[in-house]
């Protein structure tokens, strides 16, 4: 059985877990709780980078990037695949995925800067730069939502965007991402009801 390092508030872990549910692969994977911020946690023994998620395969090999893990899991037999085959649909899905991942990366950077550093060491200008990245990307996603590009079928792109928006709600509500993005908000309201997202929603601070 494969094992997945599981940190309940990481958007990157949530992306993997949501894909697992979408594809019906839960029976193949055991989750191992971990705390990347605890120096005593054994995570570095699995992933020398000390990051989540990490997926240990049946043969002992370890995959350590959320996108790589998702693509590997998408290659297994299961429900409908989330990575389209080569061609325009694939590049559209990956482009949307990178926008969603970019929002999550910027939001996590803000969390680390504001919650993990001493208050007198927080670089407010740098934090604002991350917020600007998020706001600009939300504007782009609004155009995609208005064009219907986030609708079915579900892809790694739409799933990752939903995870990123959920992370903003959870960790950075002050960004108020719904303001000025009515099409994106309406899409998310419906899409976030999927069991893969409802069942993986973060519930408590790390």
Largest sheet entry: 4 strands, mixed
Instruction: Note the run of SSEs as H and E.
Output: EHEHEEHHHHHH
Helix content: 40-55%
Shape: globular
Question: Rg, please?
Answer: 17 Å
Q: How many beta strands in the DSSP annotation? A: 4
Order of strands in the sheet with the most strands?
Answer: 2-1-3-4
Unreliable sequence segments = none
Write up this protein.
With 206 residues, the protein is an alpha+beta fold. The chain contains eight helices and four strands; from the N terminus they run βαβαββαααααα. It is globular and about 50 Å long. The model has no long low-confidence stretch (mean pLDDT 94).
Question: Concise description?
Answer:
This protein has 206 residues and is an alpha+beta fold.
Note the main attributes of this structure.
206 residues, four-stranded mixed beta sheet, 8 helices
List the helices and strands and how they pair.
Elements (H helix, E strand, L loop, with lengths): L1 E5 L4 H13 L5 E5 L9 H4 L8 E2 L5 E2 L2 H9 L13 H29 L7 H23 L9 H16 L10 H10 L3 H4 L8
Parallel strand pairs: 1-2
Antiparallel strand pairs: 1-3, 3-4
Helix pairs in contact: 1-3, 1-6, 4-5, 4-6, 5-7
